[in-house]
Write a structure and sequence with these properties.
heterodimer; A: alpha+beta; 6-stranded antiparallel β-sheet; 5-stranded parallel β-sheet; elongated; B: alpha+beta; 5-stranded mixed β-sheet; two-stranded antiparallel ribbon; 6 helices; globular
Chain lengths: 1103, 238
């Protein structure tokens, strides 16, 4: 036995351990002792091994014995312990024994020797004690078992007297065993009576049954019990009684009942939920919920009521539902009013849904609710939004009150149904508005499908007819402010048509007249309509109800939509009225759009026709890309590109290549306020021809996009005209200017000329050299003066020179004499003048100018000399000649030919020589005006010019003057007789040179001369010397006071004043004016001394 | 208006050239006449001859002025910046004698800027304005001329102020017309082209010229020149 021991020695002193070992080895040769040195080692060791005994040294390096044992106890290690210690201490020993130490040994000299036997004893007694403990525990357990079961265990005999009563029974029933034993069973379990009668003879095996039932406790409580009953059979097989095990299942049972209730409630709630989930119809919800609740609460009657202002109340127009009518009280108006008042009171304090139990009300309120045979009423007042609905449950049963759970479930249902009603109402409204919207959409769509008002109105009437289900729908057009005409109608077949009917505003009563002002007219019942005339009218047309809506756009009445109900009276619903208003509004928009569209289409058409028929090319181009988007037919003509080609081109491509960048820049800079205007633009046509155009480009907004509209005007003709006009204008302005210049020069040159003449007179005629010098000066001055005059003549167009009938030959001869001096000796002049020419009508000076010009040109064409032929002859023109300057006509002409043998001209030059400023001469040698002037003069004389020229063989100018009657020319040649005199002459000239020249000249002719430098001075001098002054020589152009003013002043002083005007340059109309003022003579500057003398003599002699 | 007509310029050009030749002839022969018969000439003939010579010189002066006027270009092409002080001194130098004769005082009131302009034309302009100022100051007065400049946002505004006879408001525009000459002062000589030429020069520089005056205190000629001359010529966007 000892061989099986395992002993753990805990000893820090090695010698001691050795001693213990040796002692045990001596006793038991087998090594049974394991040795460790510390408490920690020991605890670690215990985890791996089990021991029968611990021998522990009291003082260990880490723990003392007490601490170690406490630790072992904590770990519930029940191994017996022997403590060995060097120093015995009784207190410690007692403490240790209390802690369960088996033995306490003081290390005496021989202590190890006794250890094995003590160990053996300790182990064995420990084992013994363990076995005893187990047996005792077993016994205790059996005794406890019956007492400690929670169930009641009751034994009864066949007389049902209680013969056993355990603690469980005492606990359940409250009776102690001593009080109940011998009592009959029904005292505690009245619901169960065991029946032993049929068991007496029968089975030998015990019978077991189970049942449930209430028991009665000593306190009178009724625990609910689960019973297991087993008969007790004795050795002989006789039934001697029963053992009843009763279990208190009150809690479970209650739980079960509660669960069942909850299930029921959940079921009701589910059903309610399913009702509200499946429909959004308020009535349906209320009916179904009401039915459901009536079933669930086993109500004897259930009813519903909706507040009169709720949609249901409103919609049905009835109070209550079918069930309400069965009981008279439910249809009693008074009762319902009282109910509503009562509910309003209730609702005022509770603004939410609520449940009213009649049992909880004050008696008078109870009386209100408890009508008929009903003893109780439960009301659910549902309050979605501001409406309210009542569900009533009436009971015959008295005191039918709501249990807590019922109240809860009702509250929940109320909550759910209220929410559902709210949702339904919302849905109803949404649906209504959706429907309305849908309807409006559909109507709008069909209205908007056309922009033709007829089609629109047809659609409007049809849609209203179908959707509002009116019997007749009219559209009344307002044809005059106070007159409507039915222009469209949709009507059921059986009713008469009203199309074409006129309604005058004046015929309507005030109510109907309001329609014109934009008010809606709703008549539910025409029969109630107070205006009998209108009533009759409507009734004649079978109208029982009608609705009229004005269609207005921007306060303008476009028309009236009128709905008639003929079959029955119709209560127009607000929804319908609203809908109709919406439709009318849409209709107004659509009609307005149609109107605007038609207007804009008209304007578009107008624009298009303008665009297409415009005289200017119009090109529309995208501002961003510059691509051409549209072009009119003129643009095709102007550019030469066809329409399709144009659409592939950018706008700039129409312009010359080298200017496209510039145009691009110009076009891109166009803004609303910055138009592009180019007077001198150019278009390159398809064939490459450059066309002068005027370009006007602007930016046009086409809604989202902006385009450039370019107007291109062909300026070819315009340019030609402009050129002419410009030329004319330029000539005029140049005329004015050159007039000024000429005036200055003329004065000076006239002075030079005059003084040169005077000078010459003074010279010794034999001194040819000096005489020649003076002549040259004279000639140069003349040349200069001519130059200046030519300029003026050209600029002014020579109108001041009067044409007269002349003999061409005379002028030609005179002129040729002059020319001989001007031409080189190398040029031979060959005149060839035909005798007996008809007269021609022309100013002799101009004719001279023509001849001079042509001859000078001929001279210039023959720098190396040649032959100049000047010929005159009669010529009859039979056919129209081309290539002439000036128009040729049939008839008799006098032909003047000037022909040279010079360089000739190319055709190109020849075609341009008559253009002003065209010259082939070097700069400074020709004015380019000579031939232009010639052409002008010839044209004025109604003649024409032909040029015959060939390069290197010469040029011939053939000038044709119309032949007049062959009278002899009236103008004689240049024979003049300069005559002197003795009279006094007042010379007025601001130009000092001329003033003195005149003085010198006239004095040399014997006249007496007075001078005045300007007008004021002249008046003064004239006043002073009026008596002696015989004649006044007046310069017209003067500062301070001009010639005309002076003339007027002089005439004021003396009406008969003899005035001769001298003027260098003076516009012809002004000359005419001066003549009208009453002058006696006119002499152009510069004048030759002799001319002046002659003119003055003539005037003086006339006097 | 006329200044913009090349044809007119050409016409003037031709005219002046054409006139030049008879003028030279007249001047030449009258000079020869004078030379050859001076000793023997009776006083009356001498007067005649002098008249001829004087008139010829006057024509010549006018022709030259007209030709000068016609030759001013319509556009000034890119030129370097010129110090206007330099221009004024050149103009003064060219008028040295006139200035000395009249003892004229010319004051530059502030430092003149550098301007992009044709130096020769601008000198001519200044000379004309200065001569004008001096000529239209009565002989009994010492001409006092003030030159100044004030920059505005885009222009330099120059002025030439004198203490001469001034100018009537009705003539503010007319003085720039071709051949307009104010004859209030008898002794004033001139071609009548000076201010017209000045205007033409300023217009060619894309500036403008105008005159404002107080009749007692003389006239003040203003001319504006762009600070940054833009020589863009193409395209006309209105």
């Amino acid at each position: 036995m000892a061989e099986r021991y395992r002993i753990l020695l805990v000893e820090d002193e090695e010698e001691h351990a050795q001693l213990v070992f040796m002692a045990f080895q001596k006793e038991w040769p087998k090594d049974i002792v394991k040795s460790v040195y510390s408490a920690q080692q020991m605890l670690a060791c215990l985890k791996a091994e089990q021991f029968d005994l611990f021998i522990i040294d009291y003082s260990l390096p880490d723990l003392d014995g007490i601490q170690l044992i406490e630790e072992l106890n904590r770990q519930e290690i029940q191994t017996p312990i022997i403590i060995i210690t060097g120093h015995g201490n009784e207190v410690v020993a007692v403490q240790l024994m209390k802690l369960g130490v088996s033995d306490y040994l003081v290390k005496a000299n021989n202590f190890p020797a006794s250890l094995p036997s003590i160990a053996h004893k300790t182990i064995e007694s420990h084992r013994l004690k363990r076995r005893f403990d187990v047996a005792e525990a077993h016994l205790q357990f059996q005794a406890l078992m019956l007492d400690n079961v929670h169930d009641a265990i009751i034994g009864i005999d066949t007389t049902t007297s209680i013969i056993y009563w355990n603690k469980g029974a005492a606990k359940i029933f409250g009776w102690q065993a001593e009080d109940i034993l011998g009592e009959p069973l029904h005292k505690v379990i009245p619901t169960f009576t065991p029946d032993f009668s049929n068991l007496q003879n029968d089975s030998s095996s015990p019978l077991q049954t189970t049942t449930e039932g209430f028991g009665i406790t000593s306190q009178g409580e009724h625990p609910y019990l689960a019973l297991r009953i087993r008969t007790i059979i004795d050795k002989n097989g006789r039934c001697v009684g029963s053992l009843i095990v009763a279990q208190d299942i009150t809690k479970e049972k209650t739980l079960q009942i509660q669960t069942q209730q909850q299930i029921r409630h959940a079921d009701i709630v589910n059903r309610v939920l399913s009702i509200v989930a499946t429909t959004t119809n308020i009535k349906e919800i209320l009916v179904n919920v009401s039915n459901l609740l009536a079933n669930a609460f086993q109500a004897d009657k259930h009813w519903r009521h909706a507040s009169s202002d709720s949609p249901l109340g409103h919609n049905s127009g009835k109070r209550g539902t079918a069930e309400l009518r069965e009981d008279s009280w439910l249809t009693d108006k008074e009762w319902l009013n009282a109910l509503e008042t009562f509910l309003h009171k209730q609702l005022n304090s509770h603004n939410r849904s609520l449940i009213i139990d009649s049992q909880s009300l004050a008696p008078e309120e109870q009386r209100l609710l408890l009508q008929g045979n009903f003893k109780s009423q439960i009301l659910m007042v549902l309050r979605p939004n501001t409406d309210w609905y009542v569900l009533g449950l009436a009971f015959n049963q008295e005191n039918r009150t709501l249990s807590e759970s019922e109240r809860e479930i009702l509250a929940e249902i109320t909550y759910i149904v209220t929410l559902a009603l709210e949702k339904a109402l919302l849905y109803k409204r949404t649906e209504e508005s959706a429907l309305r919207e849908q309807l409006i959409n559909s109507i709008t769509r069909s209205m908007s499908q056309s922009l033709d008002t007829k089609v629109i109105l047809k659609a409007v009437c049809e849609e209203i007819y179908h959707n509002i289900k009116a019997d007749r729908v009219l559209f009344i057009d307002i044809i005059q402010p106070d007159c409507g005409l039915v222009i469209h109608e949709q009507c059921k077949e059986q009713w008469n048509k009203l199309t074409g009917t006129r309604y005058l505003r004046a015929d309507c009563n005030a109510q109907v007249q309001k329609l014109w002002d934009g008010h809606i007219l709703v008549v539910d019942k025409v029969a109630d309509f107070f205006d009998s005339r209108l009533k009759n009218y409507f009734l004649e047309n079978h109208v029982q109800s009608f609705l009229a809506i004005p269609v207005r756009s921007d306060k303008r009445l476009l028309g009236i939509i009128s709905l008639h109900q003929c079959e029955s009276v119709r209560h127009w619903q607000p929804v319908e009225i609203n809908l109709m208003c919406d439709i009318a509004n849409h209709c107004a928009v659509v009609l307005n759009n149609a109107y605007l569209y038609n207007e804009s289409r008209k304007s578009e058409e107008r624009y298009r026709s303008l665009f297409d028929n415009a005289n200017d090319a119009i090109v529309i181009a995208d501002i961003k890309t510059g691509r051409i988007l549209d072009a009119n037919s003129m643009a095709e003509m102007l550019t030469g590109y066809d329409f399709d080609s144009l659409l592939t081109m950018p706008l700039t491509a129409l312009h010359p290549l080298d200017e496209q960048t510039q145009y691009q820049y110009n076009y891109s800079n166009i803004t609303k306020n910055n138009l592009l205007h180019l007077r001198d633009a150019t278009v390159i046509r398809k064939n490459g021809e450059a066309l002068p155009i005027e370009l006007n480009a602007s930016l046009i907004d086409l809604g989202a996009e902006q385009v450039i509209q370019a107007l291109l005007r062909d300026m070819t003709e315009q340019r030609k005209l402009e050129k002419q006009l410009f030329h004319a204008q330029r000539l005029e302005s140049i005329g004015t200017l050159t007039g000024g210049i000429a005036h200055d020069f003329n004065n000076l040159l006239a002075g030079i000329l005059g003084y040169a003449e005077l000078f010459k007179k003074k010279l010794d005629p034999g001194n040819t050299k000096l005489y020649n010098y003076a002549s040259i000066i004279e000639q140069s001055a003349t040349h200069g003066a001519q130059l200046a005059q030519r300029l003026v003549a050209f600029a002014r167009g020579n109108v001041e020179l009067k044409a007269q009938l002349i003999d061409l030959n005379v002028i030609v001869s005179d002129t040729l004499k002059l020319l001989e001096r001007a031409l080189n000796k190398t040029i031979e002049i060959q005149p060839s003048l035909a005798a007996n020419l008809p007269a021609v009508q022309i100013n002799p000076t101009q004719l001279q100018q023509i001849l001079m010009n042509l001859c000078i040109n001929a001279r210039d064409a023959m720098p190396d000399g040649g032959l100049l032929i000047v010929a005159t002859q009669s010529s009859a023109i039979a056919t129209y000649r081309t290539n002439t300057v000036g128009a040729s006509r049939q008839g008799d002409y006098v032909l003047l030919t000037v022909k040279d043998t010079g360089k000739g001209m190319t055709a190109e030059v020849a075609s341009r020589i008559f253009e002003p400023f065209f010259t082939t001469k070097e700069i400074g040698k020709g004015t380019g005006l000579g031939l232009a002037m010639v052409a002008n003069i010839v044209k004025e004389a109604e003649g024409f010019i032909e040029v015959d020229t060939q390069v290197d063989s010469g040029t011939a100018f053939n000038i044709y003057f119309p032949a007049k009657l062959p009278e002899r020319a009236l103008v004689n040649s240049t024979t003049k007789t300069a005559l002197g005199g003795y009279e006094t002459i007042l010379v007025i000239d601001d130009e000092e040179t001329l003033r003195y020249l005149a003085k010198d000249t006239l004095e040399s002719y014997g006249y007496k001369v007075l001078l005045a430098a300007d007008g004021l001075e002249a008046i003064e001098v004239y006043r002073k010397n009026m008596a002696e002054i015989d004649l006044v020589l007046l310069d017209i152009v003067m500062p301070r006071m001009n010639g005309r003013e002076v003339l007027q002043q002089l005439l004021k002083i003396n009406v008969n004043v003899q005035v001769v005007v001298a003027s260098g340059y003076c516009p012809p109309e002004e000359v005419e004016q001066i003549w009208r003022h009453g002058i006696k003579g006119f002499i152009p500057k510069p004048y030759q001394i002799e001319d002046l003398a002659t003119e003055l003599r003539l005037v003086l002699d006339k006097k | 208006m006329f200044g913009k007509q090349p044809e007119f310029d050409r016409l003037i050009h031709l005219l002046t050239h054409e006139l030049k030749s008879p003028l030279v002839t007249i001047l030449g022969f009258s000079a020869m006449l004078k030379e050859e018969c001076q000793p023997t000439l009776d006083p009356q003939s001498a007067t005649y001859l002098n008249f001829i010579i004087k008139a010829a010189y006057r024509i010549d002066a006018q022709v030259s002025a007209l030709s000068e006027w016609a030759e001013v270009p319509h556009n000034i092409n890119k030129t370097p910046e010129i110090d206007f002080n330099e221009i004024v001194s050149s103009a003064c130098l060219s008028l040295k004698e006139t200035i000395q004769d009249r003892q004229a005082q010319i004051v530059i009131v502030n430092l003149l800027p550098k301007v992009i302009c044709d130096k020769m034309l601008m000198t001519k302009l200044m000379a004309h304005l200065l001569v004008n100022a001096i000529n239209y100051t009565p002989k009994d007065r010492i001409p006092h001329i003030e030159i100044g400049c004030q920059p505005t946002s885009r222009m330099y505004r120059f002025w030439v102020k004198d203490n001469g006879i001034g100018i009537d408001a009705s003539l503010y525009k007319r003085v720039f017309e071709l051949f307009y000459r104010k004859k209030t002062l008898r002794e004033v000589e001139g071609s009548g082209l000076g201010l017209s030429l000045a205007q033409r020069i300023i217009v060619a520089h894309k500036g403008r010229i105008y005159v404002r005056a107080n009749p007692d205190n003389g006239s003040c000629f203003y001319f504006c020149l762009p600070i940054n001359t833009d020589y863009r010529v193409n395209g006309s966007v209105t």
